[in-house]
């Protein structure tokens, strides 16, 4: 049997330390007993840094006064999975009912309708909404103005969201008609399989702002009054206390009558400020 040197294995104390650091920085709760998970994710980070031993990496984190490596740790431990038109029923609802409902209060007509993707990852969620809104502006008497905000704790994903360039696989969820209207096909750049990259058209890109903000302590958030908020597939990673803080911070930044969309696996406990109006769809009251 092959022996693994202790320096190449994370101890339970190491896992506990990593778990506590991730929680302190991002509110993300990871069971310290998941040593295989930590081992796998941290090994990648060690390779990227050229560090050989876990104990050296732990030492690096302990002396990380700038917080930079702690953010990289969170990056290594969190997932950024996303896709265009994920939980498609919410976009259908927006198109068929939500926009009319919000329009009745002047959103998109007297003032810009504002959409916020509060854990936007690489942007697919926000760009999907943008396609629905832009379509609505092209209808007679349709939406007149809208603005888009994407926030996330991870700087690398925000960079990609802003660049708005995706592989063929990543844009799989975008139907042919929307592709034709809102995706530009690169004529030169290709992926490893020689398939072209796609970029969101400038009309949508110019409406969007992406910013770094942390849902667990509400740092980096601007004051806003959003009409539509996507807060999907991020609450599940938080402790109950952090979920509550994040939810309150988001609801406080929504307009009354605004719509909150959560992930289908996320349970929002009943509260006076929200009324459920569809599956994973809430209205601020
Ligand atoms: C699984 S992705 C979900 C992306 C998108 N909302 C969706 O449903 O397709 C989770 C995202 O939450 C972000 N995240 C994790 N902790 C966060 C925090 N404390 N504040 C803001 N974003 C956070 C991650 O960086 C990641 O991009």
Describe what you observe in this structure:
39% of the residues lie in helices and 20% in strands. The protein is an alpha/beta fold and 285 residues long. It starts with 11 loop residues before the first helix and ends with a strand. The mean pLDDT is 94. Bound molecules: S-adenosylmethionine. The site of S-adenosylmethionine has 24 residues, from loops.
**Alpha-carbon Rg, integer:** 21 Å
Q: How many helices in DSSP terms? A: 10
Quaternary structure state of the chains depicted: single chain
How many beta-strand runs? Answer: 10
Helix content: 25-40%
Write down the secondary-structure element order. HHHHHEHEHEHEEHEEHEEE
Count up the domains: 2
Instruction: Give the structural class.
Output: alpha/beta
Give the uncertain stretches in residue-range form: none
Write the layout of secondary structure elements.
Blueprint: H1 12-26, H2 35-49, H3 54-62, H4 68-77, H5 88-103, E1 113-117, H6 124-137, E2 146-152, H7 155-163, E3 165-166, H8 176-182, E4 183-190, E5 196-200, H9 202-205, E6 208-212, E7 226-231, H10 240-252, E8 254-262, E9 274-278, E10 281-284
Parallel strand pairs: 1-2, 1-7, 2-6, 7-8
Antiparallel strand pairs: 3-5, 4-5, 8-10, 9-10
Helix pairs in contact: 1-4, 2-4, 5-6
